[in-house]
Amino acid sequence: MGSLLRLLLVLLVAVAAGAPAAHAWRKEGHYMVCKIAQSFLTSEASAAVTSLLPGWAGELAETCSWADDERRRYPWSGSLHFADTPGDCQFFYDRDCHNMKGEKDMCVVGGINNYTTALMNSSAPLVDPTISLMFLAHFVGDIHQPLHCGNTADFGGNTIIVHWYNTTTTNLHRVWDLDIIEKAMKDFYNDDLSIMTQVIMQNITEAWADEEREWEACSTRTKTCADKYAMESAQLSCDVAYAGVEQGSILGDDYFFSALPVVRKRIAQGGVRLAAILNRIFSESSEPQSS
């Protein structure tokens, strides 16, 4: 507990670095991750989550953009939303999990591990279990957006200006946060977020049924497997997100149809893995008290 409390104290007083803001998945993507996660919770974990979210009627999905909405209130949390790398398509905790000041553990992997531990030990001073849950749920969504483990040189694609279907000037990071999801909703899901969520959930139990067990598997009992999730995103950022993209690129159908399957699967994986983490937390600890 000593190292956990020291890190939590650091988080409470740290000042956010001046990198461009990165809001993974925006509200729509985070909502889907948490809606999927809530459907996979055990009855014990579901009861614990509900008790921690009285202001949201126990609906985890309604809170999953909270960490972005409250950035100004928690400026120290900025570096906990991502884990950029030098561009070698790999993530190494000791090398990459730090903020722009070089402070260790200040990345999305550190945030996931830390708030998991905090929820397992909710009696620890300075730890609000409701806030811990909302940060954890958000960060699990963040880590599954490939460009949240993108290149440090371009701040995860934030400084790469592109033209989405030659109609909108935007940046590569925003394309993955929002534009791909918005186009998919318009083209395939009648602009209905609930329909897109249901289709992804159906794929988990049908098309991806053989993979789902592997997604949630984690051999460690003391931490999470967030290092693995970051490594996956770092590789996907190279293989898909950055592939063929330069400053000023026009991204159209070819790019969209290569990226959309990745977006859908990463949202699915994020939901399954968040549920697995919460199921483990609330099966191994007493139910925390709502704040």
TrEMBL record:
Enzymatic class: hydrolase
EC number: 3.1.30.1
Descriptive protein name: Aspergillus nuclease S1
Homology family: Belongs to the nuclease type I family.
Signal peptide interval: 1-24
GO MF, any single term: single-stranded DNA endodeoxyribonuclease activity
Species of the source: Urochloa decumbens
Entries under CDD domains matching the protein: S1-P1_nuclease
Reaction equations catalysed: Endonucleolytic cleavage to 5'-phosphomononucleotide and 5'-phosphooligonucleotide end-products
Any one biological process term the GO annotation gives: DNA catabolic process
Pfam families the record matches: S1-P1_nuclease
Keywords of the record: Disulfide bond, Endonuclease, Glycoprotein, Hydrolase, Metal-binding, Nuclease, Signal
Keyword Disulfide bond belongs to the record: yes
